[in-house]
Amino acid sequence: MVKILFVCLGNICRSPTAEGVFRHHANKAGIEDGFTKDIYIDSAGTAGFHMAAPPDKRAQLTALKYGVDIGDLRARKLSLQDFSDFTYILAMDSDNLQMMKRHCPEEHQHKLHLFMSFAENSPGITEVPDPYYGDIEDFDKAYDFIDRASQGFLKHICREYNL
Ligand code: 4NP
Fold it and tell me: Were both Cys, which of 27, 55, 56, 58 would link to 16 (CB 3.0–4.6 Å)?
């Protein structure tokens, strides 16, 4: 089984959107996710400010415009256990990647990547910018970046795992 964890700061804007969008694309491609399936998908935040909170309303509304419902997701904080439990740990930006690199045991460092490194046709875009202090257009932009990276990452794991 391949286990994928999306990580941002608060786990209420970018990473739950990535969880929902990636699940949407995987399911559309006939790949079901869950504990007993080929893939397992989750998200977490490096900070615990919003533990157990649903995604930010603006993130929910933006995802819903594209038919992706993330309303049932709840925020949680990244744990040390996540570094051993997951196969891929995908950071939304370099601050969160650096934060994870500082805490991740050596044998799991290879699991840490910038999510945007999997996006196709997106030269120069390395991060999903934090939309939290922005407006709805920043959420649209974050959604667009996340969508590109989700599609590229799905191709990547389909190739790697023959899904
Ligand atoms: P996220 O956005 O990391 O994409 O979930 C943020 C959410 C909350 C805060 C910052 C970023 N905050 O400072 O509370």
Answer: 55
66-105 pLDDT per residue, tens:
999 999 999 999 999 999 999 999 999 999 999 999 999 9
> Measured between alpha carbons, how far is 77 from 160 in angstroms, rounded to an integer?
28
Contact (CB, 8 A) for 1 and 129: no
Domain extent, residue 94, equals: 2-161
Q: What is the pLDDT of residues 107-140, one digit of tens each?
A: 999 999 999 999 999 999 999 999 999 999 999 9
Residues with CB under 6 A from ligand 1: 8-14, 45, 49, 130, 132
Which mutation among 7, 9, 50 tests ligand 1's pocket best, with the greatest number of atoms within 8 A of CB?
Answer: 9
> Do 43 and 4 meet the contact criterion of CB atoms below 8 Å apart?
no
Q: How many structural domains compose the chain? A: 1
